[in-house]
Amino acid sequence: MGEGGASGAKIPGAILFMCAMNAIRSPMAEVIARSLLPAVYIASAGVRKGERDPFVDVVLDEIGLTLGKRQPQTLDELEDDYFDLVVTLSPEAHHRALELTRSSAVEVIYWPVADPTVVQGSRDQMLDAYRGVRDHLHKMIRERFATSA
Predict the structure, then answer these.
(1) How much is the pTM?
(2) Domain architecture of the chain: domains with CATH
Protein backbone atom coordinates (compact mmCIF):
# COMPACT_ATOMS: atom_id res chain seq x y z
CA MET A 1 0.00 0.00 0.00
CA GLY A 2 2.31 2.77 1.20
CA GLU A 3 1.36 6.07 -0.36
CA GLY A 4 -2.14 7.41 -0.66
CA GLY A 5 -4.62 9.77 0.88
CA ALA A 6 -6.19 12.93 -0.35
CA SER A 7 -3.23 14.97 0.88
CA GLY A 8 -0.69 12.57 -0.62
CA ALA A 9 0.37 11.61 2.90
CA LYS A 10 1.63 8.16 3.70
CA ILE A 11 -1.03 5.80 5.02
CA PRO A 12 -0.30 5.24 8.72
CA GLY A 13 0.72 1.80 9.92
CA ALA A 14 -1.46 2.03 13.05
CA ILE A 15 -4.62 4.07 13.60
CA LEU A 16 -6.64 4.57 16.78
CA PHE A 17 -10.21 5.86 16.62
CA MET A 18 -11.42 7.47 19.86
CA CYS A 19 -14.78 8.67 21.12
CA ALA A 20 -16.37 9.17 24.51
CA MET A 21 -17.44 5.59 25.37
CA ASN A 22 -16.30 3.34 22.47
CA ALA A 23 -19.89 2.21 22.00
CA ILE A 24 -20.99 3.75 18.69
CA ARG A 25 -18.74 6.07 16.69
CA SER A 26 -15.24 4.67 17.29
CA PRO A 27 -16.11 0.96 16.99
CA MET A 28 -18.04 1.75 13.79
CA ALA A 29 -15.00 3.62 12.46
CA GLU A 30 -12.70 0.75 13.48
CA VAL A 31 -14.72 -1.88 11.61
CA ILE A 32 -15.19 0.30 8.52
CA ALA A 33 -11.48 1.22 8.43
CA ARG A 34 -10.47 -2.42 8.78
CA SER A 35 -12.62 -3.28 5.77
CA LEU A 36 -11.05 -0.48 3.69
CA LEU A 37 -7.46 -0.70 5.00
CA PRO A 38 -6.68 -4.38 5.57
CA ALA A 39 -2.90 -3.81 5.82
CA VAL A 40 -3.20 -1.25 8.63
CA TYR A 41 -3.40 -2.01 12.37
CA ILE A 42 -6.63 -0.38 13.57
CA ALA A 43 -8.12 -0.16 17.05
CA SER A 44 -10.66 1.96 18.90
CA ALA A 45 -11.21 3.03 22.47
CA GLY A 46 -13.23 5.37 24.61
CA VAL A 47 -12.36 7.88 27.27
CA ARG A 48 -14.91 6.14 29.51
CA LYS A 49 -16.34 2.61 29.44
CA GLY A 50 -19.58 2.29 27.49
CA GLU A 51 -22.12 -0.41 26.75
CA ARG A 52 -22.42 -2.11 23.38
CA ASP A 53 -25.20 -0.55 21.30
CA PRO A 54 -27.40 -2.98 19.32
CA PHE A 55 -28.19 -0.34 16.67
CA VAL A 56 -24.49 -0.37 15.71
CA ASP A 57 -24.78 -4.07 14.93
CA VAL A 58 -27.88 -3.47 12.79
CA VAL A 59 -26.40 -0.70 10.64
CA LEU A 60 -23.05 -2.46 10.20
CA ASP A 61 -24.82 -5.66 9.18
CA GLU A 62 -26.64 -3.69 6.47
CA ILE A 63 -23.28 -3.14 4.74
CA GLY A 64 -21.92 -6.61 5.42
CA LEU A 65 -19.74 -5.73 8.44
CA THR A 66 -19.81 -6.90 12.04
CA LEU A 67 -18.29 -6.09 15.41
CA GLY A 68 -18.20 -9.81 16.19
CA LYS A 69 -17.76 -10.34 19.92
CA ARG A 70 -15.98 -7.01 20.38
CA GLN A 71 -16.97 -5.05 23.49
CA PRO A 72 -16.37 -1.36 24.28
CA GLN A 73 -12.97 -0.67 25.81
CA THR A 74 -11.20 2.26 27.41
CA LEU A 75 -7.78 3.60 26.54
CA ASP A 76 -6.32 1.74 29.54
CA GLU A 77 -7.61 -1.57 28.15
CA LEU A 78 -5.91 -1.26 24.76
CA GLU A 79 -3.45 -4.04 23.96
CA ASP A 80 -1.15 -1.66 22.08
CA ASP A 81 -0.52 1.97 22.87
CA TYR A 82 1.58 3.03 19.90
CA PHE A 83 -0.26 4.59 16.99
CA ASP A 84 0.87 6.75 14.08
CA LEU A 85 -2.49 8.49 13.93
CA VAL A 86 -5.28 9.09 16.44
CA VAL A 87 -8.64 10.09 14.97
CA THR A 88 -10.94 11.60 17.56
CA LEU A 89 -14.68 11.64 16.97
CA SER A 90 -15.95 13.60 19.98
CA PRO A 91 -14.72 16.74 21.80
CA GLU A 92 -14.02 14.77 25.00
CA ALA A 93 -11.91 12.23 23.10
CA HIS A 94 -10.04 14.98 21.26
CA HIS A 95 -9.02 16.75 24.47
CA ARG A 96 -7.90 13.45 26.01
CA ALA A 97 -5.90 12.48 22.91
CA LEU A 98 -4.11 15.83 22.90
CA GLU A 99 -3.19 15.33 26.58
CA LEU A 100 -1.89 11.82 25.93
CA THR A 101 0.15 12.71 22.86
CA ARG A 102 1.55 16.03 24.07
CA SER A 103 5.10 14.65 24.31
CA SER A 104 5.03 12.33 21.30
CA ALA A 105 5.05 12.64 17.53
CA VAL A 106 1.62 11.10 17.07
CA GLU A 107 -0.67 12.93 14.67
CA VAL A 108 -4.11 13.69 16.16
CA ILE A 109 -6.98 14.71 13.92
CA TYR A 110 -10.52 15.62 14.91
CA TRP A 111 -13.49 14.49 12.87
CA PRO A 112 -16.59 15.85 14.62
CA VAL A 113 -19.24 13.14 14.34
CA ALA A 114 -22.73 13.61 15.74
CA ASP A 115 -23.92 11.35 18.54
CA PRO A 116 -26.87 9.43 17.07
CA THR A 117 -28.31 8.68 20.52
CA VAL A 118 -29.64 12.24 20.76
CA VAL A 119 -32.19 11.47 18.03
CA GLN A 120 -35.61 10.66 19.45
CA GLY A 121 -38.52 9.09 17.63
CA SER A 122 -39.40 5.79 16.05
CA ARG A 123 -36.97 2.90 15.68
CA ASP A 124 -36.62 3.79 11.98
CA GLN A 125 -35.80 7.41 12.77
CA MET A 126 -33.19 6.32 15.28
CA LEU A 127 -31.68 3.79 12.84
CA ASP A 128 -31.51 6.54 10.20
CA ALA A 129 -29.35 8.59 12.60
CA TYR A 130 -26.99 5.62 13.06
CA ARG A 131 -26.89 5.07 9.29
CA GLY A 132 -25.93 8.72 8.88
CA VAL A 133 -23.00 8.26 11.27
CA ARG A 134 -21.96 5.04 9.52
CA ASP A 135 -22.09 6.61 6.06
CA HIS A 136 -20.28 9.75 7.22
CA LEU A 137 -17.46 7.69 8.77
CA HIS A 138 -17.19 5.54 5.64
CA LYS A 139 -16.88 8.67 3.49
CA MET A 140 -14.31 10.32 5.80
CA ILE A 141 -12.12 7.20 5.99
CA ARG A 142 -12.31 6.61 2.24
CA GLU A 143 -11.48 10.25 1.43
CA ARG A 144 -8.67 10.57 3.97
CA PHE A 145 -6.92 7.39 2.87
CA ALA A 146 -8.01 7.44 -0.82
CA THR A 147 -8.95 3.79 -0.90
CA SER A 148 -10.62 2.36 -3.95
CA ALA A 149 -13.55 0.95 -1.93
Answers:
(1) 0.90
(2) 14-143 (3.40.50.2300)
